[in-house]
Amino acid sequence: DAMVIQNPRYQVTQFGKPVTLSCSQTLNHNVMYWYQQKSSQAPKLLFHYYDKDFNNEADTPDNFQSRRPNTSFCFLDIRSPGLGDAAMYLCATSTAWGYRTDTQYFGPGTRLTVL
Amino acid sequence: DAKTTQPNSMESNEEEPVHLPCNHSTISGTDYIHWYRQLPSQGPEYVIHGLTSNVNNRMASLAIAEDRKSSTLILHRATLRDAAVYYCILRDGGSQGNLIFGKGTKLSVKP
Prior knowledge:
The structure holds 2 protein chains of 2 kinds. Chain A has strands at 4-7, 10-13, 19-25, 31-37, 44-50, 53-56, 64-67, 73-78, 87-94, 105-106, 110-114. Chain A is mostly beta strands. In chain A, strands 2, 4, 5, 6, 9, 10 and 11 form a 7-stranded mixed β-sheet that branches. A 4-stranded antiparallel β-sheet of chain A has the order 1-3-8-7, with no helix packed on it. The radius of gyration of chain A is 13 Å and the shape is globular. Chain B is mostly beta strands. In chain B, the strands form 2 sheets. In chain B, strands 1-9-8-3-4 form a 5-stranded mixed β-sheet, with no helix packed on it. In chain B, strands 2-7-6-5 form a 4-stranded antiparallel β-sheet, with no helix packed on it. Chain B is built from no helices and 9 strands. The A-B interface holds A 4, 42-45, 90-92, 97-109 and B 30-32, 36, 38, 41-46, 49, 87, 91-104.
């Protein structure tokens, strides 16, 4: 089945130690997204890629970066994780950006713990 | 962006229908109404969307009020697997076409 895969499902890192989360997709979608979901809160968009074009949300901290080396893969880099960055990180894909009718397909998420 | 209002939580019995309401009194004429749900420890998944007419798919039905200021997601026969947080989201396309999640409704299903 075509899908969005996130590895690892659980990641533990230390305060200030850089960490990378990965996402891959077999849907061949043009757009890939990263969301942050803190405990008992709704998902919040950090940024998205339309093909190779990177689009950052205005309130996404500089501590968060992303790379998309090819259509299938996208990475979330947290340069210096703080305790407040502990959250579920969700990757999603869609065929297009900005269409009122497009559907986003989410991966299962990576739960990040910061010690 | 237009906002939605949903009850924080609802309960249902297994195998009974569930009606999940959503108010969106400031909806614009071009906003689509989308529903996603998030099962425990999973990413959100798409459920259904519509503009003006009622919509049906294999997962659920979407009933949209004539004035479009409210809508209702209908699960015809709730199962334990339907226990999730259900999000009602308005999408207006273009640069504002993000999925902006509100607090959603947490649905509990009792056996």
